[in-house]
Amino acid sequence: MRTEHTQQTRGVEQARTRDGFASAIGAFAATLGSAVGLGNIWKFPYLTGSNGGGAFVLVYLGSVFVVGLPILVAEHLIGRKTRLNAIHAYGSIVPKAKYWSLIGWAGFLSAIFIMAFYTDVSGWVFAYIFKAIAAAFTGGVLNAGTFGSLAGGTWEPLLWQFLVLCLTTSIIASGVSRGIERVTKTLMPILLVLLILCDIRALTLPGAFAGVTYLFRPDFSKLTGSAILTALGLSFFKLSLGMGTMTTYGSYMPDSTRIVPNATRVALADTVVSLLAGLAIFPAVFAFGESPAGGPGLLFNIMPLIFSKMPFGSVFTIIFFILSAIATMGAMLSLVEVPVSWMVEKGKMKRPTAAYLTGAMMFALGILATLSQGPTLGNVKILGKNFFDLFDFLSSNVLLPIGGLAIAILTGWLLKKQDIVRELEKGYGEGKKPGYIQLVYVFIKYISPVVIFVIILNGFGIV
Ligand code: PFF
User: What's this model's pTM, rounded to 2 decimal places?
Assistant: First the structure.
């Protein structure tokens, strides 16, 4: 009882001195800002296309709501209960079991692996803004050659990656609420409107319906164990789970945030954005006779094609890549925040120093990822994968699912149920108790760990 009281007092004191989200709406916007990013517009379509379409989408949707959502809730509640960075949160949530901080450490590693390739792709998006502007003035077109020479180049992608990292780290250096909230709050709705416009255009192209069928009609013969693991990994990547990001964001949440409704809205909104991106890309892929399995270049090759069929298409192309660039920022800010919050709280480091140090680590691995897309390091393979794919595989298919499993076990089996209930009841007035808590608890404790465990074993060919 006493330790609990002391812990609570410590939490309250830290909440006072730590930076945090100013309001429940700000917390929602930042959480959504972390979730929405390249995962929706780049990774979801490209993985769906490489894994056969509808069946993959179905497994992905199942993973988001059966496994991802409960873990999002678990991460938020651990963050808000401890009001600590991820490493300290997991190291202190169970008394005398500091080794759970390994979840936070694995998250630290995942953040660096993810950023290594994420900043490369984000750099392509930023580069495309300028390429689209140039094309608008010269009457040129953005085609597969444009993408190939950018992604497969040396100095050009490295320069963009470097600029992206400089931008992200300087926003992080300026502080949580001022930096993150301001950037993410206003821009999501505009991206949504533009995506809907693309959907309308793509869906009205002749032959577009084959793309809708591809996206929504499941063909289970195309589904392998490793594709299922990839879909699970994608749902974790999408919702920024299994690596402490959402724990860190939970630690900045005000007590007025109702964790379960907030998480549900985030999962729904994020999924809608992915599906809207899919509904723009696949109908266009089929209408233009392209291959859905076009790999990482799919977004960059198909979107300009859709816009080329619209009035003012070149202006829309520019706006689309500007908004996408901004969407990637919200996600990257949350990725950089995981190591930075730990360095600041543990090492008493100044925020800017921590931000730039983290950026430097990310760039070091990022160089390998970027150069592995071209001739310089394209032939270097580890586990049969180049660096770009390796960092993606190690984070999405290994570290995030294992991290998610550990978080579910920790929350469901080692935390006191009354502590969980107390955290999930916050934000409701005195005496008003939401009725769904028992259900959420069953998902966290039983369903999600079992499902993740089976998918991991199956994905690696063990069962
Ligand atoms: N959720 C982001 C996206 O889908 O683009 C990527 C991401 C952000 C993954 C933050 C992990 C993370 F911690």
Answer: 0.93
HSE-CB at 162 with a 13 A cutoff on CA atoms is: 7
Q: Which of 64, 85, 110, 114 to mutate to test the pocket of ligand 1 (most atoms within 8 A of CB)?
A: 114
DSSP string for 263-326 = HHHHHHHHHHHHHHHHHHHHHHHHHTT--TT-GGGHHHHHHHHHHHTSTTHHHHHHHHHHHHHH
| Selected residue with higher pLDDT from 186 and 70 | 70
Q: Which residue blocks in 63-154 are alpha helix, DSSP H?
A: 69-82, 86-92, 101-138, 144-151
Say if residues 425 and 259 touch (Cβ distance below 8 Å).
no
Structure tokens at 400: 């995030």
Would you say the C-alpha torsion 261, 263, 266, 270 has a positive or negative sign?
A: negative
Task: Determine the Cα–Cα distance for residues 343 and 288; give it in Å rounded to an integer.
Answer: 49
Q: Which residue has the higher pLDDT, 229 or 183?
A: 229
| Residue with the two structure tokens 């195309």 | 222
SS3 of residue 382 by DSSP: strand
- The verdict on the CB of residue 243 being under 6 Å from ligand 1 is yes
pLDDT of amino acid 185:
65
217: helix, coil or strand? coil
Q: Percentage of the chain surpassing pLDDT 70? A: 94
CB within 8 A of 278, min separation 6: which ones? 44, 45, 48, 57, 215
Q: pLDDT tens digit string along 424-453? A: 999 998 778 898 999 999 999 999 999 999
Which amino acid is present at 355?
A
Give yes or no for residue 247 CB within 6 A of ligand 1.
Answer: no
Statement: residue 370 has pLDDT above 90: yes
- CA-to-CA separations, 301 to 2, 124, 281, 403, in angstroms, rounded: 61, 12, 10, 34
CB neighbour list of residue 96: distance below 8 Å, 6 or more residues apart: none
Q: What does the angle CA 144 – CA 145 – CA 146 come to, to the nearest 5 degrees?
A: 90
pLDDT of residue 329: 86
In the chain, what are the domains? 21-459 (1.10.4160.10)
Distance 37 CA to ligand 1 centre (A): 7
Place of tokens 């080692």: 414
Q: Is 407 a pocket residue for ligand 1 (Cβ < 6 Å)?
A: no
Q: What is the pLDDT of residue 77?
A: 98
